[in-house]
Amino acid sequence: MDIDYDRYLPVVLESMYPDKTERHAVESRLTSYGRESFQREVSRVRLGILRLAYEEPAKLDAFIQLACTDYRDLLCAAEYPHTSRRWKLRESEPERYKKLSEREEAAYRAWLALFEV
Questions:
Q1: Cα-based distances in Å from 117 to 9, 38, 66, 104, 114
Q2: pLDDT at residue 66, as a whole number
Q3: CB 97 within 8 A of CB 83
Q4: Helix axes 5-16, 20-30, angle to 10 degrees
Q5: Does pTM top 0.90 for this prediction?
Q6: Spans of all domains in the chain
Q7: DSSP state letter for 35
Q8: Please, where are the H alpha helices in the chain?
Q9: Residue 117 and residue 114: Cα distance in Å, rounded?
């Protein structure tokens, strides 16, 4: 996906947490991810955390912990919920895999569209 994660992150954060105090608390918790050199794509992963927390706000800390443990698992859950762990479909059923992949991207973009950037 060609998405400017750096541009979306503050907008989504402010929209999801309009209360300044709550937003700063969440922002502080999000900084748990990105402190280590092996923690890559910081804005993308933090946005992925927010995407999952959008559906399940009570699990915000669990999503942050997942990202800190293995950011790839977090990204699979946030961006590729239909195709992750189904990699064999790419070879065995390429059309089905393509449709699932397109559906994932459309759903992610629809979620981002909620936040008018």
A1: 10, 29, 27, 20, 9
A2: 98
A3: yes
A4: 140
A5: yes
A6: 5-113
A7: S
A8: 5-16, 20-30, 42-55, 60-69, 71-79, 88-92, 94-113
A9: 9
